[in-house]
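Record now logged underneath.
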Amino acid sequence: MITVTKPFLPPLDEFTPFLEKIWDSRVLTNGGPFHEQLELELCKYLGVQHISLCSNGTLGLMIALQALEIKGEVITTPYSFVATSHALLWNEIKPVFVDINPNSLNIDSKKIEAAITSETKAILGMHCYGNPCEVDTIKKIADKYKLKVVYDACHAFGVQDKEGSILRHGDLSVLSFHATKVFNTFEGGAIISPDYKTKKLIDQLKNFGFENELSVVLPGINAKMSEVNAAFGLLQLKYIDTALQARKNLYEIYKELLNGINGIDCIFQTNSFQHNYSYFPILVTPAYSLTRDELFEKFKKNDIFTRRYFYPLISNFATYKNFKSSNKKNLYVANQISEQILCLPLYPNLDVRTINYICRLIKEDN
């Protein structure tokens, strides 16, 4: 059985010494030594100043919105994992969906201004498949209308533009370290702050609002990362460059083998100086002999489990479909892409023979 992704796991015997130190110290959580070390190492690796580790990316998004005191309406993308919009609803914020760019599949910056109202307080973008949003254009719009900008950067670990980490853009950026991501801590996430004052606020919000042992100054939540997760992250960092290079090599093989197949369009990285090859998405267009769902089922019959990622659109889920901005006419590109998207298996130890087999299955119906 070939799944769309498999988490990278370093040698188990190399993790054992970390666990032994945790057993000896009996420090399991609350910002222990591995937690502090991972924050420092990630800042160094990613080229950012301030990171707050948290237990997952969804709580990271919720806390980021709390930290910026955002209320009212937030303009966002319907083409993402549902957690992006759920974080808004949990904060009693109304998501306003706008269409996506057909090339990057990110929020279409040309559609943002028309959606701004007196209730708009922020823009929540998502770097889809690790492709950076049009950050400069979004910043100009945000500055013009005095809006905050938050980026769901859950796909964008290690991604850089020509000037450095993509995580430096916006008021806050949020990473996911879920098992399906290029860098994982089993479960986990992080919030990237522009300054120490903001990091301190976020660190309080993720720890019940405690300022010190006797003082609670905010209505915080429990979103701390455990020492076991942090220790695993430190070991993962040792192998991350090797894992990313393996992803790149396999990505390039897919590109070559799928080149020129009628009706199969590959979504390549845009606007990035350094990519992370987190996914290999294709569009199965009407020019192909099978529909996307027929190809999906064909793969399943051959024990290959691809993913229609993202389908359905957030705006088409029951929770969101009654929002005015969920109107399919306003989200034409997003709905079209959602009906055609298919992510093919991609992970560091994927066998090249398997990629050849996957591509042969696609080609035989061309």
Remarks:
- DSSP finds eleven helices and 16 strands in the chain.
